[in-house]
Amino acid sequence: MRALKKLRSSLMMIAIVAAVGATIQLASNPPKGWRWRTPRPLIEKYRFAPVSRTVLAGSLTAHGELQSAKRTVIECELENITMGVKGQTLAAGGASTLLYVIPGGTIVKEGEVLARLDSSDYEELLRQQQITVERARSDRYQAALNLDVAKLAIHEYREGVLKETLKDSQRAIALAESDEMRTKDRLDWTLRMEEKGYAPKSQVATEKQNYAKALFAVAQEKGALKVFEQYVAPKALRTLEGKVLADTTVLNYQDSRLKRQLDRLETLERQVELCTIRAPHDGVVIYANDPRRGIVIEEGMAVRQKQDLFYLPDLGDMEVVTHLHESIVDQVRTGMKANVRLEGAPDARLEGHVKKVSPLPDYDWRSDVRYFTAIVQLDSVSRADLNPGLTAEIEIHLAPRSSVLTVPIEAVTQEAGQDVCYVALDDRLERRRIELGQATHHLLEVADGLREGERVVLNPVRAEVADDTSEGPDARDDQASPSSTADEGDAEAADAVAVLH
User: Fold this and answer.
1) Digit-coded pLDDT (tens) for 99-125
2) Percent of the chain with pLDDT over 90
3) How far is 209 from 219, CA to CA, in rounded Å?
4) Where are the beta strands (DSSP E) in 371-442?
5) Of 202, 159, 206, 208, nearest to 180 (Cα)?
6) What does the alpha-carbon distance between residue 126 and residue 132 come to, in Å, rounded to a whole number?
7) What is the per-residue pLDDT for 281?
8) Using an 8 Å Cβ cutoff, are 72 and 283 in contact?
9) What does the pLDDT read at residue 290?
10) By CB count within 10 A, which of 116, 241, 310, 334 is most buried?
């Protein structure tokens, strides 16, 4: 009997110790569904915020790439030029060798040297052309001199030879008329003397003959003057004028020839200048490499006419290119304000606006999802380290919406991939699954799950609110899961502890 009493005492002590240990274990780690009652009201345990309606200026976030709105393609501008010099043909084939190239990624200013090409062929053509130009200039000067001489000859004939010839003819006519008058007087005197018997008939005949000669001389001089005025002088003038016209034509030809040679000289000088490639504006140098064709821009390579060498984005005119999902592209309009944050420059906060939204989606045969290209133009860029290619995060400010049901962003938490709020009832909390709409930095639009005037817990922690929470009607339908099985196991464990007690 004594041994039996000792055994009963030992078993009772073991049971008491086990019950105490189970109680301590439950107190330190209560199973799910176990509620410890507390007299403290909910308002003292949690912070709440009301579900209210307000004007919501929402925003939309997308990722994109920083690019330059103005990207200049710099190519080889050398031309194929052929010219003949003294029966020989000289040519430069529009190709050259890259002697120097600036390192890629270098930020350059307008006019800075980007590359140098071998210009020896073009310089030789330039020297030969300079000689040709000097020869053409000399021929032009000679033609101009010949024209001046021809014009001077016309002036000389009109003002000198013609006038002097006319004066000589008039003097000759006057002298002939004077001889006519003298011989006429002598003939008349001889005829009177013949009547008185003082002059023989032979003398009369001689005086008549002299008078006839004088008349003929007058007629001859007047005829010569008439021929000179009507034929000789006009013919001489026409000849001299023809010489002027001919020399004018030669001068025009020489002018055209000299201009053509000067144009060719200018072209060759331009080609020599183009062998030194300079930046047309400020920007950053990007090599125009083409891996598909095996083209790598480097010193010593042969370049051809119209070959792309560099891309020069303008760092003062930057934009961000992004791709918007088809579900949100209808919310974005041209002119909407946007903030841009660059991952490569996290301290930079840039402002811009939506410049363009593509009306058609981007084609991608690998996916059925459609994206639309949008461009956000930066309003001002004052930093020199914002290079193209940086990844950007864009926040587009959507149009404000009035009377929108909202909650603070701190009131929403995610549990099992669902957006959840904890709503205050009389003496407990209710877990609600909600649907969200647009968002700002501080507020979230509630599309479904809450009513205006309800209060929600701020910064809820599942482990802290579990004892005061009951599942909402929308959540009770989701309990057929492994977690509900675990809750049932916890309840069975609690019943076992109660039995021990």
Assistant:
1) 999 998 888 899 999 999 999 989 999
2) 45
3) 15
4) 371-378, 391-397, 401-408, 413-415, 418-424, 429-433, 435-439
5) 208
6) 10
7) 86
8) yes
9) 86
10) 310
> Residues 51, 452: contact at Cβ < 8 Å?
yes
In which residue are the tokens 């060498």 written?
309
CB 240 within 8 A of CB 150: yes
Return all residues near 475 (Cβ < 8 A) that are at least 6 apart: 431, 432, 433
Q: For the segment 210-264, what is each residue's pLDDT rounded down to a tens digit?
A: 999 999 999 999 999 999 999 999 999 999 999 999 999 999 999 999 999 999 9
Rounded CA-CA distance 93/384 in Å is 40
411/51 Cα distance (integer angstroms): 10
What confidence category does residue 357 fall into, taking pLDDT thresholds of 50, 70 and 90?
Answer: very high
As given in the structure block, the two tokens for residue 301 are 């390579």
Cβ distance 406 to 421 under 8 Å?
no
Alpha helices in 196-232 (DSSP H): 201-227
Q: For residues 90-111, b (16+ Cβ closer than 10 Å) or e, as one string? A: eebebbbebeebbeeeeebeee
Torsion of CA 248, 250, 252, 258, to 10 degrees: -150
Between helices 162-195 and 233-274, what is the axis angle to 10°?
Answer: 170
Rounded-to-integer distance, Cα 60 and Cα 348, Å: 19
Give the C-alpha separation, 488 to 482, whole Å: 10
